[in-house]
Amino acid sequence: MTCAACHGAEGISVNLPGPNLAGQKDTYLVNALKAYRAGVRVNPTMGALAKGLSDSDISDVAAYFAGMSCKARANVTETTSAAGQALASGCAACHGANGVSVNPPWPNLAGQSKDYLLNALRAYRSGERKDAIMTGVVKTLNEVDAAAVAAYFAASPCK
Question: In the predicted model, is pLDDT for residue 75 greater than 60?
Answer without folding.
Answer: no
